[in-house]
Amino acid sequence: MLSDDHRQDTEALLPGRTTEAGATRRLALQTAIGLGYAAAAAPLMAQTAIATPADGLTAGEVSFTVGGFKVPAYRAAPAGKTGLPVVLVIQEIFGVHEYIADTCRRFAKAGYLAIAPQLYARQGDASKYTEAAKLMAEIVSKVPDAQVMADLDGAVAWATANGGDAARIGITGFCWGGRITWLYAAHGPVKAGVAWYGRLVGQASDLTPKHPVEIAPILKAPVLGLYGEKDTGIPLDTIDKMKAALAGGTAAAKASEFVVYPDAPHAFHADYRPSYRKEAADDGWKRALAWFKANGVV
Description:
The chain contains ten helices and eight strands. It is of the alpha/beta class. The chain has a single domain (4-44, 56-294), classed as 3-Layer(aba) Sandwich (Rossmann fold), CATH 3.40.50. Strands 1-2-4-3-5-6-7-8 form an eight-stranded mixed β-sheet, with helices on both faces. A hairpin with a 2-residue loop joins strand 1 and strand 2. It starts with a helix and ends with a helix.
């Protein structure tokens, strides 16, 4: 059974919208970034709202080893520069595809070394799936939080050994990655996080023993939560529960904030999907950059 955040992603996958142009674009993207475009992320809109060129950037696939496993990742950074602020960019359930790669390039254009590790790589290749429910059942549902935290630690180590500043690290993530953003802000060496519509509550399991509302009081870094009022998978009362948990926590927890966009659905930043809302997405992006600046990432 799909959890709420995963259901919201799959609801955008409406039949009958895939076009020949969209299929051609997916193939081109798969070839261009060398990581594979998740077929489950179809259908694409006729045009993505933002297409960020790689001119002036060093961008493409890298890898790092964690526990003997070679973790692939996409990274983008200003060419020839070091001592850069780092931002971890955490995928939706569809994996590291062109939208996530483009988000990395957007951060690179803003002066960051951005890295998006493929956090399902041990479980399988998300780009091979055409059905979101099957992707969830066979890959995403088998990914342990502990594995993700370790892989993000590995991404930080790679970034700081390759031009990034270990004292200036941020994290941002979308949907599945929004939840991970909250978790890593309680785990890793980051100065700030920006969580886009990540699930806040849930049932504990061996693979996902705690959810953001449980770790809220022990945050090590403040998080900006960007959520949609019309997100049916993340009820507003769960945001209220998270706010209450944060209020009784660390200084970082108390400094965390939420912005809820009126009329915005789930995945309002995903500019390749019908859920995209330009006004909310643009405002959220500006707030994300300002949040990182205010909290010492840049």
